[in-house]
Amino acid sequence: MGGHTDWRGERLTPAAAKTVGDFLGSHTTMTLATSGEDGPWAAALFYAHDSDLNLYFISAKDTRHAADIERNPRVAVAVNAQHKDWSDIRGLQIGGVAEIVPPDQRAGAVETYLAKFPDFRPLFSAPRDEQESRIARAFAASPFYRVRPNRIRLIDNRKSFGHRDEYTLT
What pTM, to 2 d.p., does this model score? Predict the structure, then answer.
């Protein structure tokens, strides 16, 4: 994402990919940072990930972050849990490129997403009320997005204050 002099990323190993994948699997919400005509923006979104550590989310095309991605697909993502003690902080910082999932790959993205959020599945097969029907229609009409990471930083203050493992994926 831009030549930061403090980046010491190593090539992502299978063991590191498993650690990152396990972390992604244990959380549900990411903060997506974009940049557009009105400057930087951040949005909290549910996500799912695949075995290549690509992140998938759904969003209406008229959101600010969707408009930003259309103009500038370079994004940053943060995934972390809430902690009360700084020594427990653990999280991911990800740099990558976002894109709309092509129509021929949408079914796979939907399955990846619904595998993580199985409670959403009944909304589409048997909505119980008008609210659920509206959600299902919005879901069907909205594009899925994919963030392809090219850099990942795993922060783990449990190891030491400011400890980070940095990886490149390209």
Answer: 0.89
Asked if residue 5 belongs to a domain, the reply is no
Contact criterion met (CB below 8 Å) for 79 and 23: yes
> Which residues in the chain show pLDDT less than 50?
1-5
Domain range for residue 115?
A: 10-168
Q: Which of 4, 158, 13 is nearest to 76 (CA)?
A: 4
Number of structural domains (the chain) is 1
Average pLDDT, the chain: 89
Residue with tokens 């594009």: 143
Q: Are 92 and 80 in contact (CB under 8 A)?
A: yes
Partners of 48 in the beta sheet?
Answer: 56
State the Cα–Cα distance between residues 127 and 125, nearest whole angstrom.
6
Tell me which DSSP letter residue 101 carries. P
